[in-house]
Amino acid sequence: VVVATNHTVRRDEDIAITLPDGSRTTGAVAGRDGGTDLVVLRVPPSLKSARAAELRAADEPPRVGELVLAVGRPGDEGPTAALGIVSAVQGPWRTWGGGEIERFVRLDLSVYDGFSGSPLVDARGRVIGINSSALARGMPVTIPVATVERVVSQLLERGHVARGYVGLAIQPVRITESLRTRSGGSWEVGAMIVKVEPQGPADRAGVLLGDVVVAVDGEAVADPSEIGALVGDRVGRTIELTVVRGGSIAKVPVTVAERPRRTPDGREG
């Protein structure tokens, strides 16, 4: 199994792979996930010259200021390397493509050709994660081992990552004092429904255009992006949306479906 970045692998079959001794073989895509920018390739199992990388334990996250090395291979000329430090480590975050990353790991090092898909290695030679320039608008970040292991496991099992979907487009709104008084709630912000996907989970459940979501399963919504995070791993489960509708409170149960997948060319499939 070879793990790479999704945006650097354009084909699904006959993908040329250079091995450590310089010899070549071909691989095929076993699964890809644009949300976390990861792709898994399968290669012949009888290769003698390739060995698995040593991964740093997921419960030993990188530290700010830690010396790290990014090693890439942009072409036939051999590998390239960049030495730098980990400049920031923060909590979980959601990429622009909807992927969930266990930790935000930002790097302070030079970005060369071949950077995306390269391993980030610590001083003991253990892989901390996989580097990508596609997740944070060109900023060099690392997909940590915890995310890689979780996503790769799902890609090998089903070929894609299942993500929750309710079929809503929303925008943030501030709950006025008069509306709070009429509804009897204490919410200050909510998520107004500006589009309901026809025949989507929310549409079938009776969610209406103009409803304002203020809680999911009783958990207040402080930012509309939280709704995606709350439903992301609940495929097949029923959640309860608390909405303000016409000045009153309504409880709407919605069964979360799996988000329609898109093919590499952008079509749903």
Structural notes for this entry:
A hairpin with a 5-residue loop joins strand 7 (93-94) and strand 8 (100-101). It contains 4 helices and 20 strands. By secondary structure, it is mostly beta strands. The protein starts with a strand and ends in an 11-residue tail after the last strand. The protein has a 6-stranded antiparallel barrel. Strands 14, 15, 16, 17, 18 and 19 form a 6-stranded antiparallel β-sheet that branches. Strands 1-4-3-2 form a 4-stranded antiparallel β-sheet. Residues 263-269 have low confidence and may be disordered.
Average of the residue pLDDT scores: 86
User: What is the element string, with H for helices and E for strands?
Assistant: EEEEEEEEEEEEHEEHEHEEHEEE
Q: How many E-type strands?
A: 20
Major β-sheet annotation: 6 strands, antiparallel, barrel
Distance between the termini: 25 Å
Question: C-alpha Rg, in Å?
Answer: 22 Å
- Strand arrangement, largest sheet? 5-6-9-12-11-10
Task: Count up the helices.
Answer: 4
Strand content: 35-45%
Helix coverage percent? 10-25%
Coarse morphology: elongated
Unreliable stretches (pLDDT < 50, length at least 5) are 263-269
Structural class: mainly beta
SSE layout:
Layout lengths: L1 E4 L9 E4 L5 E10 L4 E5 L24 E9 L2 E13 L2 E2 L5 E2 L2 E5 L10 E3 L5 E6 L8 E4 H14 L5 E2 L2 E7 L2 H7 L5 E8 L4 H5 L6 E5 L2 E2 L4 H7 L6 E8 L2 E8 L1 E2 L11
Antiparallel strand pairs: 1-4, 2-3, 3-4, 5-6, 5-10, 6-9, 7-8, 9-12, 10-11, 11-12, 13-20, 14-15, 15-16, 16-17, 16-18, 18-19
Question: Which key phrases capture this entry?
Answer:
mainly beta; 6-stranded antiparallel beta sheet; 269 residues; disordered C terminus; 41% strand
